[in-house]
Amino acid sequence: MDERTRYEAVSSRDARFDGAFFFAVVTTGVYCRPSCPAVTPKRTNVRFYLTAAAAQADGFRACRRCRPDAVPGSAEWNARADVVGRAMRLIGDGVVDREGVPGLAGRLGYSARQVQRQLNAELGAGPVALARAQRAHTARVLLQTTGLPVTEIAFAAGFASVRQFNDTIRRIYARTPSGLRAEAATGLGGRRRESARTGIPLRLAHRGPYAAAAMFDLLGGEAVARVEEMAGPAGRRTYRRTLRLPYGAGLVAVEEASPGPWLEARMHLTDLRDLTTAVQRVRRLLDLDADPYAADEALASDARLAPLVAARPGLRSPGAADPDEAAVRTLVGRRAAEELVERYGKALDLPCGGLTHVFPEPAALADSAEDPVLRSLAAALADGRLRLDAGADRDEAERTLLALPGIGRRTAALIRMRALGDPDVDPYGTPGAGRWRPWRSYAVRHLEAAAAGPRA
Fold first, then answer.
1. Chain-centre distance of CA 446, in angstroms?
2. What does the pLDDT look like over 184-193, one tens digit per residue?
3. Distance between CA atoms of 357 and 228, rounded to whole angstroms?
4. What span, in angstroms and rounded, lies between the C-alpha atoms of 241 and 249?
5. CB 273 within 8 A of CB 387
6. Distance, CA of 260 to CA of 77 (rounded, Å)
7. What are the C-alpha distances in Å from 187 to residues 15, 143, 191?
8. pLDDT in tens, 403-426
């Protein structure tokens, strides 16, 4: 988009572009999402940014009215396979907080200086600034939804010190942490102290229509006992699953019904430092950063698809909360996956009801699994030969998968589609010259099945 198109989106308060870009107003020192309900500023006073971090780096604070830090992520970062797209996915997964910029660069196969230069050139902010913006959002969520002590929140959000935390919150929100907490509608501040086990209420924002029923049908049909469950009547179901996270374990419960452009969720964690990572992984599982308008427009250009798209707007393609788990489940199937959980899964120490385990780690399967193909896949995941993390190179991952004994092209394509979130894979196509057939053939089958009934 050029700046004229962006300004037209701002003038019309078009929510389709929330998260795709941000705009800042020079006269007020505030940056907003495109759909901000405030009076549209003059064009001469507006600056545009691709990320909130870039606006913050230029000295703008977040608008208190439209909360630009709470928008869905840009669909561009999930689709792109270049270094910038991979870096954005890794930063969202919390890699900079855990491993620093050198760790991010090492995962991308570039030097820290090259990564810094590319991100600054394209986004106007480096990896540290992007991670800091994400930490600030995590801190705001904890301040406004829990009664946890401010010091505990600072370190849980990923800040190195309380001073750094205080300075960042003041710069981004023009409020002290205690002032930000006092504004919260929940009014929890100071009246109740909650632990990580109590659960953190979340609103998982998405753009455009969201076909929650179809997504929940699919997740319920695939659910692996002890790790996932679906409860409640149609239209008001709750999807729950366990999560294996860098610092511990987690459990998330997501509601099907929602009063607005978001899904209500509650997160339980053994270690609060995992909050950012857990939220991003659940967003990838539910495809919440997708651009349904662009997808529907592209699909509707096909004469066979147009009536199906019109009948079922907002269909999303599920991803994976744990790419390694998704790869194993794709290979062995649901029933065998349940047996693996029972034999090798780690017991969950959280208030979990029918959820008792976290899916087994690849190392445990590499040492113990009876199936030689599964052992080969698990060993490749455990020793790092096969990387399926948020910043993995999709082409390289597919080549590694195809080199493993017993892994065929369809299995590799399904893993690439679900575990790596590649939007342009046709797992049912016939490969030719190293490329899959056009994705429309898969889209036709997917939409026809969705239109046929609730089991799609």
1. 22
2. 754 444 444 4
3. 9
4. 11
5. no
6. 24
7. 29, 10, 8
8. 999 999 999 999 999 999 988 887
Q: Does residue 40 contact residue 61 with C-beta atoms inside 8 Å?
A: no
How far apart are the C-alpha atoms of 156 and 139, rounded to whole Å? 8
Closest CA to 213 of 191, 197, 236: 236
Summarize pLDDT for 83-136 with one digit per residue, the tens.
Answer: 999 999 999 999 999 999 999 999 999 999 999 999 999 999 999 999 999 999
Q: Which two tokens stand for residue 151?
A: 């010091």
Asked if residue 147 lies in contact with residue 190, where contact means CB atoms within 8 angstroms, the answer is yes
Average the pLDDT over 328-350 and give the result: 94
Rounded to an integer, what distance in angstroms lies between the CA atom of residue 234 and that of residue 261?
19
Say if residues 9 and 34 touch (Cβ distance below 8 Å).
yes
pLDDT of residue 434: 41
Residue 433, judged by CB atoms within 10 A of its CB (0-12, 13-18, 19+), counts as exposed
Is 226 within 8 Å of 345 (Cβ atoms)? yes
Burial class (CB in 10 A: 0-12, 13-18, 19+), 354: exposed
Handedness of CA 160, 165, 168, 172 (dihedral sign): positive
Task: Sketch out the chain's domains with CATH numbers.
Answer: 3-50 (3.40.10.10), 75-145+147-183 (1.10.10.60)
CB within 8 A of 454, min separation 6: which ones? 213, 214, 217, 234
First-to-last alpha carbon distance for the chain, in angstroms, is 35
What angle (nearest 5°) sits at the alpha carbon of residue 335, between those of residues 334 and 340? 95
**Strand duo 30-32 + 61-62: pairing:** parallel
The predicted-structure confidence for 293-314, as pLDDT tens digits, reads as follows 888 888 888 888 899 888 888 8
Q: What amino acid occupies position 116?
A: Q
| Separation between Cα atoms, residue 404 and residue 397, nearest integer Å | 11
pTM flag (> 0.85): yes
Distance, in Å, from the CA atom of 360 to the CA atom of 337, rounded to the nearest integer, reads: 10
